[in-house]
Amino acid sequence: MTAEELKSIIASSLACDHLEVEGDGRHWQALIVSAEFAGLRPVQRHQRVYKTLGARMHTDEVHALSMKTFTPAEWATQSH
Fold first, then answer.
1. H or E element in which residue 32 lies
2. 43 by DSSP, 3-state: which?
3. Is the CA virtual torsion 50, 55, 59, 61 positive or negative?
4. What is the fold of 3-76?
5. pLDDT in tens, the chain (80 residues)
6. Helix %, strand %, coil % for the chain, to 5?
7. 37 three-state secondary structure
8. What per-residue confidence (pLDDT) applies to 12?
9. In what order do the strands lie in the sheet with 18-23?
10. pTM of the predicted structure, to 2 decimals
């Protein structure tokens, strides 16, 4: 899987204001900004993203995914 493929999978199921994905094909890092995270605790946000990946998280297709998740308001306060 490529970073663009993983990015496309996440974006197809989660409305993202900003999305960055990088990694080595098995180990991934993602920066995800979505209004859908509003009111969710960090673990719930991660579960929401894992849900978009479905079975890929249980196979070696996506071996590891670390995430930074923000709402648009939270992202606006970050220094980019």
1. strand 27-33
2. helix
3. negative
4. GMP Synthetase; Chain A, domain 3 (3.30.300)
5. 899 999 999 999 999 999 999 998 888 999 999 999 999 999 999 999 999 988 887 777 788 899 999 999 999 999 77
6. 50, 25, 30
7. helix
8. 95
9. 18-23, 27-33, 64-70
10. 0.91
Task: Using the structure block, give the residue that is written with the tokens 């849900």.
Answer: 51
pLDDT of residue 69: 97
Element (H, E) at 7: helix 3-13
What are the residue boundaries of the structural domains of the chain, listed by start? 3-76
The position carrying tokens 């098995």 is 26
Q: Which residue has the tokens 């989660």?
A: 14
Compute the distance between CA of residue 41 and CA of residue 21 in angstroms, rounded to an integer: 21
What tokens does 74 get? Answer: 């939270």
Paired residues of 23 in beta bridges: 28
Give dist(CA 5, CA 15) in Å, integer: 16
